[in-house]
Design goal:
Elements lengths: L1 H8 L10 H10 L15 E4 L4 E3 L10 E2 L5 H5 L2 H11 L8 H8 L25 E4 L18 H6 L12 H7 L8 E4 L8 H13 L4 E6 L6 H9 L1 E7 L5 H7 L5 H17 L5 E6 L7 H11 L2 E6 L13 H12 L8 H25 L11 H10 L8 H10 L9 H15 L2 H12 L3 H10 L2 H13 L3
Parallel strand pairs: 1-4, 4-5, 5-6, 6-7, 7-8, 8-9
Antiparallel strand pairs: 1-2, 2-3
Helix pairs in contact: 12-14, 13-14, 16-17, 18-20
C-alpha cells in the first residue's frame, strides 16, 4: 500500500543518470579533480556548422539547438532546445544525443574525452554567455586533396563535381550578432575548407581583435596561404596553429595536396612555427595517414621532433581506396612489420608524446590486420578492384534518392556470410539516420554509399563496432577534413 501511495504522488524523473560507480570512476580520472557534472560543454559552447546548423557540441550532431538565420544567436543561446539539452546534462544523463561520450563513459574509456577539456569551465553558473565557440561554416579551399570531396573543398566541388558553391548563410548580420558574445569568449576554433581564405572568418577575427584580443584562437590550415593580411592578423591575435601536411617529400606532397607548391608550404610552415614559438606555444603538424604515405610516418615524426612540433595523426577511413584498413591482412602485416622496425627517440616530453602517437597507430594497424585475417577482408569484396575505382569515378554526383532505395539494394544484395541478417543491417542504418537528425548529412551518406561498393558498406555495418561505425560516418560525412 505504501509503495502504491509513493508512486501515485511522487513524480518519476525523466532522467537516467550515468551509473554512480561509473561516474565515480570518471571523476577519479579527471585531471582537474572530481566535479559535480559529467560534462560542462552545453553550458559553455556553441558550434556553427554547415548551412546554418548550430550545435552545442561537435560530437552531438543529433540535437540541433538552432539554425541561422532563422534563429538569432541570442535566441539560440537562451532558447529552449539548448535548455533541454542542458537539463539532461545537469542530471548527468547522456541519453539526449550524447551517444558518442556515453559509449566511452560506460566502457570506462575516459582518456581524451572532450568534456574533460571543459572542466575548467565548471563555474558556468557565474557566466551567462558561452566561453567557447567553434566554426565550420564554409568549404572554401584552394586545394583538391586526393582524400577530400566537394563538401570539404570548394575547388573539388567546382572543378571535379561541376556543382555550384554551397550556400553559406552566415552573413554580415551574423558577425554583428557576434558582438554580444565575443567579450565573454575564452576560446574560438576555426576549421575549413581553408580558414585563411574564408571572408567571414576575417570579419569575425577583426571583431575579436577589437573587442577581446586575448581570446585563444585555434586555426587548422593547409599551410599554403600566408599573405600580408594573414601576417598582420597573426601579429594582433592570440593564435594557436595546426598545419596539415601529409608528406615532406616534394613529389608525394604535391600529388596528395593537388594545387599546392611544396617549397612555398615549407617556407610558410617555418613562419607559422616561429610565430607559434614566439607566443610560447607548440605548433601541431596534422598528418593524414593513407596508402600514399604510410611508410613516411617515422620520417615525418623525426621532422616534427627537429622542428619542435607536435605530431597529430589523422586516421583515414574514407575514401575506401585510400584507407589502409581496406588492405588485405598480408599487406597490413607488411605495413606493421615495416613500421615496427623504427625506434623513435623519447629524450624529452615532445618526443615521448610523438612516439606515443606512433605506437597508437601501430596498434591500429595490428587491430585491422587481425580483423582482416579473420575473414573481414574488405579489398576482396570485388572481383576487380580497378573496376571498382572506375565505377566510382563514373558514378560521381549520383546518389540513392532515398533511404528506401538504399534499403532495397541492401535486401537484394547477394551476400550470404554476414554476422547479422540484411534486415538487421537495414534496421541499424535506420537508427543511424534517425539519430543523426541531419538531412544534409543523410544526403551525403546516400551519395557516398552510391559511389562506393555496396557490399563493403553492408559488411561494415555488419562487422564494425558502434565506435567504428560512428567514427566512419563522422569522419566522412559530418566533419570537415
Amino acid at each position: 500500500m505504501l509503495d502504491f501511495i509513493t508512486k501515485r504522488f511522487t513524480k518519476e524523473s525523466p532522467y537516467s543518470p550515468v551509473a554512480k560507480d561509473v561516474f565515480k570512476a570518471y571523476n577519479k580520472h579527471r585531471p582537474g579533480g572530481a566535479k559535480d557534472l559529467i560534462c560542462y560543454v552545453p553550458f559553455n559552447s556553441l558550434t556553427f556548422s554547415w548551412l546554418g546548423k548550430v550545435y552545442a557540441c561537435t560530437y552531438n550532431r543529433n540535437i540541433l539547438v538552432g539554425e541561422y538565420p532563422k534563429d538569432s544567436l541570442r535566441d539560440i543561446w537562451f532558447g529552449e532546445p539548448l535548455k533541454k539539452l542542458q537539463g539532461y546534462i545537469a542530471h548527468n544523463d547522456l541519453n539526449y544525443g550524447c551517444q558518442h561520450c556515453k559509449y566511452f563513459v560506460e566502457k570506462e574509456k575516459f582518456t581524451g574525452l572532450k568534456p574533460q577539456s571543459f572542466d575548467k569551465y565548471a563555474d558556468y553558473k557565474e557566466h551567462r554567455y558561452p566561453r567557447v565557440m567553434e566554426f565550420e561554416i564554409s568549404n572554401k579551399c584552394n586545394l583538391e586533396c586526393i582524400m577530400c570531396n566537394g563538401n570539404t573543398s570548394s575547388a573539388i566541388r567546382q572543378n571535379k563535381d561541376k556543382l555550384p558553391p554551397l550556400a553559406i548563410p552566415y552573413d554580415d548580420k551574423f558577425v554583428e550578432q557576434m558582438r554580444e558574445f565575443i567579450p565573454h569568449l575564452k576560446e574560438a576554433k576555426f576549421f575549413g575548407g581553408e580558414p585563411f581564405l574564408i571572408h567571414s572568418y576575417f570579419q569575425i577575427w577583426d571583431v575579436m581583435m577589437e573587442m577581446n584580443p586575448s581570446i585563444n584562437i585555434f586555426v587548422i590550415t593547409n599551410g599554403t596561404v600566408l599573405t600580408e593580411k594573414v601576417k598582420d592578423l597573426l601579429s594582433k591575435g592570440n593564435f594557436e596553429l595546426a598545419v596539415s601536411i601529409d608528406s615532406i617529400r616534394k613529389e608525394r606532397y604535391e600529388f596528395i595536396r593537388k594545387n599546392a607548391n611544396f617549397e612555398t608550404t615549407m617556407q610558410n610552415l617555418d613562419y607559422f612555427n616561429d610565430y607559434t614559438k614566439s607566443r610560447g606555444r607548440t605548433m601541431s603538424l596534422s598528418f593524414t595517414t593513407q596508402r600514399e604515405n604510410w611508410d613516411e610516418m617515422p620520417e615525418v615524426i623525426e621532422f616534427c621532433n627537429k622542428k619542435g612540433m607536435v605530431f597529430f595523426n589523422s586516421f583515414l577511413t574514407a575514401p575506401f581506396d585510400l584507407s589502409l584498413i581496406f588492405l588485405p591482412s598480408e599487406k597490413l602485416k607488411d605495413v606493421y612489420t615495416y613500421l615496427s622496425k623504427f625506434e623513435l627517440p623519447e629524450s624529452n616530453e615532445l618526443e615521448k608524446y610523438n612516439k606515443s602517437v606512433f605506437l597508437d597507430y601501430l596498434k591500429y594497424i595490428r587491430h585491422y590486420e587481425e580483423k582482416n585475417r579473420n575473414g573481414i577482408d574488405y579489398s576482396e569484396q570485388k572481383d576487380n578492384y580497378e573496376a571498382v575505382i572506375s565505377e566510382r569515378s563514373t558514378a560521381e554526383n549520383k546518389k540513392f534518392s532515398s533511404r528506401e532505395e538504399l534499403y532495397e539494394k541492401i535486401r537484394a544484395a547477394k551476400i550470404t556470410d554476414l554476422k547479422i541478417t540484411k534486415e538487421e543491417v537495414v534496421a541499424r542504418l535506420e537508427v543511424l539516420f534517425d539519430s543523426l537528425n541531419d538531412l544534409e548529412a543523410e544526403e551525403r551518406i546516400l551519395s557516398g554509399v552510391y559511389n562506393s561498393p555496396l557490399d563493403i558498406m553492408i559488411r561494415d555495418v555488419s562487422n564494425w563496432t558502434e565506435e567504428e561505425l560512428y567514427a566512419k560516418v563522422k569522419s566522412q560525412y559530418i566533419t570537415s577534413a
